[in-house]
Amino acid sequence: MPAESILSDDFIRELMNVGDVDIVVGVPTYNAARTVGQVVQAVRAGLLKYFPRERSVIINADGGSRDGTQDLVRAAAISDLSATSDIHALRTLHSISTQYENGPANGVALHTILAASDLLQARACAIVSPESTTLEPEWIERLLRPVFRDGKDLVLPVYRRHKFDGLLIRNLVYPMAKALYGCSVREPYPADFSFSAELGSRFLEQDVWNQEQGRYGTELWMTLWAANAKCKLAQMFLGAKTRREDAPSDLVAAMRETAGTLFCSLEAYSSVWRSSPQLVPAPCSGCEAAISEEHSRLNRKRLHDMFTFGVKELDPVFLSILTPPTHERLKELAELPEDKFAYAGELWARTVYEFAVAYQKAVIGRDHIVQALVPLFRGRAYTFLTENRDASAEMVEQNIEILCQAFEKEKPTLIDLWDGRK
Amino acid sequence: MWQGFIAELSRTMDEILRSFGRFLPRFLEMLLLVVVGGIIAFVLSAIVRSILRLARFDKLSEHTGAAHLLRRTALPSPTEMLARFVFWVAWIGFILVAVSVLPVPWLWPHISDFFVFLPRLIAAVFIVFFGLLGATFFSRAALLGGVNADVPSPRLISQTLRVMIIFFVISLAFEFVGVGSRTVLIAFSLTFGALMLGLAIAFGLGGKELAKKYLERRFAREQYPREARHEHEDELSPL
Amino acid sequence: MAPQDGLWYKDAVIYQVHVRAFFDSSGDGNGDFRGLAQKLDYLQELGVTAIWLMPFFPSPLRDDGYDIADYRSVNPTYGQLEDFKSFLDAAHERGIRVIIELVLNHTSNQHPWFLESRSSQTNPRRDWYVWSDTDTRYKGTRIIFLDTELSNWAWDPVSKQYYWHRFFSHQPDLNYDNPKVREEMWDVMKFWLQMGVDAFRLDAVPYLVEREGTNCENLPETHQIIKDLRARLDTEFPGRMLLAEANQWPTDLRAYFGTGDEFNMAFHFPLMPRMFMALKLEDRKPITEILKQTPEIPENCQWCLFLRNHDELTLEMVTDMERDYMYDEYAKEKSMRLNLGIRRRLAPLLDNDRRRIELMNGLLMSLPGTPIIYYGDEIGMGDNVNLGDRHGVRTPMQWDGSWNGGFSTADPEVLYSPLMLNPVYGYQAINVQSQKRFEHSLLSWMKRLIRIRKATPTLGRGSIQFLYPANHRVLAYMRKLGNETILAVNNLSSKAQAVELDLKPYKGNILVEMFGRNIFPRIGDLPYLLTLGPYQFYWFRLRRI
Description:
Chain A is α/β, with parallel strands linked by helices. Helices cover 51% and strands 12% of the residues of chain A. Chain A has 17 helices and nine strands.
């Protein structure tokens, strides 16, 4: 399917009116009326303040919202028609919106934005999440400037986050991506990021948009692709990222988007991780103090309960995924009382690798494999919370690095399993 | 008398020998047919196997999720399954044709019945085959879904679902073959009804305590965190 | 001369010229009135209907004639008063009106009035100027020539007092609180009106009166003075016109039209830089926004539009951000900047791009107002930023490729200003004679443009209604007068553009392109789709047949 055909005729007409631009800011949304207005206003302020001379456009790819999300985005436009006399802008700023089909799926939204950005010949494209309510105008500058000024290909964010936020990233995605691909970016699955025109075009050319990674977890796929293609990466500290109070934490969906994408990548990049890849340089400016240590109110007991319950109930499923020794060790672990429970980094790394191989060999339905990892992850999360309960920011960092080393150490296991030697 | 006996005997012997002489070539013919049929069936299955391999049938069925389910039910790969199926159907066909060569007239209608019956049998086999796959798949989906949604006794739910699907599939298969369809339907209804009644009774009367425990566990799990989420507790933040 | 039409200035096409720079008949290196008279045929051929002369009075020429030393005479370099009269008559014979400059606000410090005034504190003419013991009065007043002046007060060592000057310190401000000064200035005007002059461009109008605690600009007292002058003009010389030079925001300028009883015309200063900005940004927003902010003016009044003039391209009426942008885009070299502006001519500003020059002239002629063409811009003359002050845009007119570009027979060394010599803009490359020979030269194109403009009163007098197509690179508007409707569509972009215009109210009309008179499809229910090449513009006359 040619890339352009995902754009509707009406949207093409809107793009025609926008004309060629320097900057595209893409906002993928689905029923985001609560927050998107505030975010696009901040984006607009950022564009006006830091890129007043560049031709910019805000493009919203919506997954079928019915709450007026699109109108809120369109309201950010600055033209001679709208009476926004309090805002002084050198240029017209278009803020357009389109609804893609078969949504919501963030990957399709990204595909739409990429295709639009390519058509408009934008020099740089930033993607911002409608849920980034802490987005400041400066974020736009920090995301786009490295692409403009330093010729970076992909700029990834670093946020000041609570030490127990992003547990799946810190316990699985980051250590695994670092061990396998030398990709040591803090947010490999970014909510707000930017990339150059060239990288955008290369993303578009990839045969991923009809696959699962082209629908969910696409941002992670992009990061891994760029890291493995030796693109110029950079990280920018943006600011605090707080979660919405009532943010849904669908662990299964999150696991699909991250572990699914990571496991899938193993086949494509097997030559990379089989050798010992160099660390992909991703200089970070302002990345200190990225961890905050406020009090957390996570219910650890529940995590432990769900782990033991999962190990017990999913026994037949684990039989076909895990090697007998690992399976045995997990069962032993599940027997331990809460105070003695510790899901060590090595065992976790080994578990993940065995899941990855099972995924590659499709011993059972791939989606089932990913789902089966969820209860085990809860166990690992429990251990992470326990280990770092009183830890300072530096200690948390250290512990994460130790976990990375565990993933590094267990890599031969992965290679053996992959080759069918075990 | 003796001579008469001898004559009768030799006549009988003659008769037997003659009959045997008449039967033997047919029997040899039959044997030949069976052997040749076996060879042809073997060749056919080999052809099917290589065609399926060329067409990467295993890969295809992996994508549809059938292969993992096959493996899960300890069955060989789909290609192998199909090849074996072709072999046996072809060979049985040849054997029946061979048997029909024999001068045993009462067998003939049964043999022709078999050939009429054959397509239905194949269809039934397919139904059972995919039904079993489906049962495994859906029961595991229920199990994983149950575990991750923290539903009590996900295994029980999963197994119940599996048994129900298998029952349903088997009754469907019998319906197709046309054998005792009513019996099977009744059996299915009985089992299902009994199961439901049993559960109702168990939860209502006999297993009052057990049911109570289940309910308590369930509500304790759901209610406690829900309140807590608002007041004391944060949700896990995976991303 | 055609019968007097009181609103003649609404249909006019004005040509701004400096006597000194146009044609030298005497061979002394300076242009003169006899020379100007000789070139009237050229101006008639070009099609202009009025000439605006820059100051030609006797002057020490420290501000290019804006420092007047005698209001009732002609600078001897340009000829005698008689020469001016002959020129005036010759222009009128050709149907060309003449607008002269009058600097009301100040005189030269060489003017006899000032010499008398400064001679002693008790001189009868002492109160013809604004004197003070301190330099702290009128604190709230800005300094206009930031590059050269530190204060609006200058110390006079002779009479030991400070005198007030809004411009250069050699240009003391007249004291309009003095009735004698006001009466004298009306006498000056009457002197020229009686000779036959059609209009005055009054320079530096907002600064006539000073009051403590104000910024000394646009004061009510200033307006009253103008009202008086206008009333006398209308009674004694009907059909004559006053044109205001006041570099102000449109809302502030609006006051200078009064209720149609002050100025007849005023320059629309903020529009001009925005036209250049819109072109560079490839975005119509600056133009539509400033015109939206432009208030309605009385029926008998008119805006004056210009692309370039004898001054710098002034950036006073833009925000800091816009000014920085304009500097970066149009005046990368420091030498191109002067005060708060850019001292360059039209062609170099537009990179000598014929398509952009045409588009800008197209806008000038189709936006509501009376267009002014600065001498030399009709052939695309260049500038010389190495000459001081604004002299770089006041070099001699380039008539042909011969000696001194046909401007003068004097030795090049004695010319009042060096000629343009570079291979791109020099007189051998760019001159009237060579452009006259070709139908597709800029000069020939300008003649066609002016002819169409003059034949279309709607462009001069009609109302304007902007269309806002979604494509912001396209500026489109309707001009309407009576039954006539004109549609102008301008592509501000360097790339081809498609645009959909909502012309539903005009359904059934056929578009007739005004340059080629070809017909375009009839307007239907659907949005009217047009495609425009880079910097292309269309003027359509709507016809219902």
